[in-house]
Amino acid sequence: LWLLVLALAWLGLAQAASEGPGGETEDGEVAEEQEEVDEVLSDELGEEDGVLVLHEHNFARALREHRLLLVEFYAPWCHHCQALAPQFAQAAAILRNESGELRLAKVDTPAQPALSREFGIMAYPTLKLFRDGNRTHPVPYTGRLDAQGIVRWLQRRVGPSAVLLPDAAAAAAFIAAQEVAVVGFFQDLQGESARVFYEVAGDLVDVAFGAAKAAELFEAYGLVDDTVCLFKKFDEERADLPAQQGLDAAKLSRFVRVHSLQLIMEFSSETSERIFSAKIPHHMLLFINATEAAQLELRDAFREAAAPFRGQVLFVLVDVGGYGAGVLPFFRLTPADAPTLRLVKIETNRKYQMEEDAFSAPAVRAFVQAVLDGKVKPRLQSAEPPEDWDTKPVKVLVGKTFEQVAFDETKNVFVKFYAPWCSHCKEMAAAWEELGERYKDHKDIVIAEMDATANEMENITIHGYPTLHYFPAGPGRKMIEYKSNRDVESFSKFLENGGTLPEEPPVVCSNPMCPREAPA
C-alpha cells in the first residue's frame, strides 16, 4: 500500500424489480415504492455501524441534534471510501463511548445531488465538520484517514487546542514531557496571532501545543516579543518563529511540520506520513544496507550535509533490506545498488543522480546545491520497448519511444498513462483495448499506453492514474488532457471531433420533481 502512496508522492471515488408468477407482485411493488418514498421523506436519523445515515430530508435534524458532526460525503463505488469505511465506523464507536457531543455521519453523495451541490463536493471521500448547527461554513477535515487520526482531530475541537501554561514550572514540565512541543508566547491571548495559533493547533493533532502569557515566561525563555517556539529532544533542540508582526496559518503550519522532523529521517511505516505531510519540495535519499557497518557510517556525513537545507530539502535514510525495500522498484534500484544517492523533486517526481556517488558532506552539499540551482539534468528512466510494441491495436510506449510517437506530426495520438497497480486503470483497460481495435485501421490515429511508473518524460509530469492525453497532428507539440467519461463511445466522440467533445443538447425533464437551477 505504501508503495502506491510513495509512487504518487515521489513520482498525490435502476433499481430492478422482479415480478412473481402472473404479475401478482404488482400491488406489492407499488407499496414498496411508496414505503421507500415515505422513508426518504422522513427526517428520522438512521444508523449503520454507529454512523448516522443522512440525506436531504434529515440533514437539518442531524445538525440540530448534534453540536459537532463530522460528515463523510462518499460514493459507493469509490475504492478509497470503501477503505475508509471500517476506520470511520471504528472512530464512531470510540467517540460515542468518550463524548456524547461528537457524532459521525455519512452521505451517499451520488444519491443526494442536492447536498452534493450545496457543499461543493468534487471528490470522494470528502469530510466536513459541522459545528453548532452551522450549515453554511463547515470546516474541511485535514487529519489522517484512520480511526485514531479522526478521533484525535475531533478531540482537539471539543476543548482548547493548546494547553494554557500559567508559570515557568508548568511550561518546563510541559516541554519535558514531549518529544516535540510547540509553545506560543503571546502578550494577548485574545489577539489575532493567538487565534491563528489555536487554529493551527487544532489541525496538527500529532504535536502538543501550549500557550503562555505570563511575563516571567517571556523572561525565562529569553523573549521580548510574541514568538512561537518549537522545543525538541534532537538536533538543534529549539526553533523560533517571530510573531510580533502577526502569524500566517500556512507559514506556522509549515514551520511546525518542518522543524518537528529530524535532520535525517529514517524511512519507516511510522515516519512515512510525516515525511510527505511536511511538504518539503525536495527529498535527498541515501540508500544503505543497515546490516553493513561501513554503510551505516555514511550517516554522519549525510547528516552534516543536511543542516543548510532544512525546509528546502529533506534528507531521508532508506534501508534497502528493511521497510525501504518496497520503494526500490520506483527508483529502478536493487539492494545490490546500495549505497547510493538520489534526489527527488516532489512536484515533478524528477530524479537526480550523481555521475559517480560521493558520500562526503562537501560532495553531497555541492550536488544538492547544483540541483537547486538548475545545473543538473534529471535522469529520466525508461523501460526497454517490447519487441511487438507497435504491432497490436494499442501501441506500448516507453520513455525512449514516447517522443517519436506522441509528437509525430502526421498522427493524432491518444495516450493512456497508467500504473500497474491502479484499480481505476484496470477498470478501463477493456474499454481502451476496444478503442484500439476500433481505430487500428485508421492511418492517422494512434491509440497507445505507457506505464508511467516505469517511464518518464522530460516536459510532462503525470500526477494521477489513469491520465489521458491527446497529441493532435501538426506542428507545435500540442497536448490536450481528456477529462470526460472513460467509455469507448465518449473516447470515439472525442477523437472524431478533433480532440474536443461535441456539446450535447440540454436534457429536458418533464417530471415536475426534477431539480432545477435557481433563477438568476
From TrEMBL:
GO terms for biological process: protein folding; response to endoplasmic reticulum stress. InterPro entries: Prot_disulphide_isomerase, Thioredoxin-like_sf, Thioredoxin_domain. GO terms for molecular function: protein disulfide isomerase activity. It holds the Pfam family Thioredoxin_6. It catalyses: Catalyzes the rearrangement of -S-S- bonds in proteins. Its main location: endoplasmic reticulum. Keywords: Chaperone, Disulfide bond, Endoplasmic reticulum, Isomerase, Redox-active center, Repeat, Signal. Residues 1-16 form the signal peptide. Its EC number is 5.3.4.1. Residues 18-40 are annotated as: Disordered. GO terms for cellular component: endoplasmic reticulum lumen. Residues 24-40 have a biased composition (Acidic residues). Residues 11-159, 355-500 form the Thioredoxin domain. Disulfide bonds join 78-81, 422-425. SUPFAM superfamilies: Thioredoxin-like. It is found in: Endoplasmic reticulum lumen. Belongs to the protein disulfide isomerase family. This is protein disulfide-isomerase. It comes from Crypturellus soui.
